[in-house]
TrEMBL record:
Pathway: Protein modification; protein glycosylation. GO terms for cellular component: endoplasmic reticulum membrane. Belongs to the glycosyltransferase 2 family. It catalyses: a di-trans,poly-cis-dolichyl phosphate + GDP-alpha-D-mannose = a di-trans,poly-cis-dolichyl beta-D-mannosyl phosphate + GDP. GO terms for biological process: alcohol metabolic process; dolichol-linked oligosaccharide biosynthetic process; GPI anchor biosynthetic process; isoprenoid metabolic process; protein O-linked glycosylation via mannose. Its EC number is 2.4.1.83. Component of the dolichol-phosphate mannose (DPM) synthase complex. This is Dolichol-phosphate mannosyltransferase subunit 1. Its main location: endoplasmic reticulum.
Amino acid sequence: MEDNHAILTVDDASHNPSDIMTVNKYSVLLPTYNERENLPIITWLLAKTFTQENVDWEVVIIDDGSPDGTQEVAKELQKVYGEDHIQLRPRAGKLGLGTAYVHGLQFATGNYVIIMDADFSHHPKFIPQMIRLQAQHNYDIVSGTRYQPGGGVYGWDLKRKLVSRGANYLATLLLRPKSSDLTGSFRLYKKDVLYQLINATISKGYVFQMEMIVRARQFNYTVGEVPITFVDRVYGESKMGLNEITQYAQGVWNLFVAI
């Protein structure tokens, strides 16, 4: 199979604003659960980043029935930034990360879609680099990677770092996706590409991200990478537990058997 995956550093991409950035619209899908402390700050950072880059943008907040008042905060943000920039598309409860993207995508009005976390694990400052890299090479997907030079992880203890590295190594060994960060969830997609990948993806929860990038290779989509620094959440508790780790291991095996 042809290798359509390329790893580029920030220096490979143009640092001058591209015309493409001004004629396209970028929709950020932001799944939330108990993120009332984080949501105003991440939204402010996104608005600041897109405004400075003169990019047309919107944030689609997919809240899974947070009991901490996340939706009330989102409604206040709509008053500040306007409903043309902030969409609130709640769901009844926690239904999984993959289905959150399916839900949010049907409301996205941009022709490019960015998926990321709301807890500051992913900093919006990397988005312009991702947009420029995509525009320069017309990539179908640009993925933020923690595991290439210039990337990294901060706020994790040694055990968690080893688990993450081991998980990526296991999946890479079995699935050979030609991606350095299978479990990463900070990515830029062409909207039609994301539609096809979501329709083809079977996994739910945290395995969803891994299968998406594996399916991208299966469909011969081109993928670029931008090194990012991943920072553990500032407020709230991590939603990763033993159940998610078990799902991941099972998901790797299921994909290995199926693909």
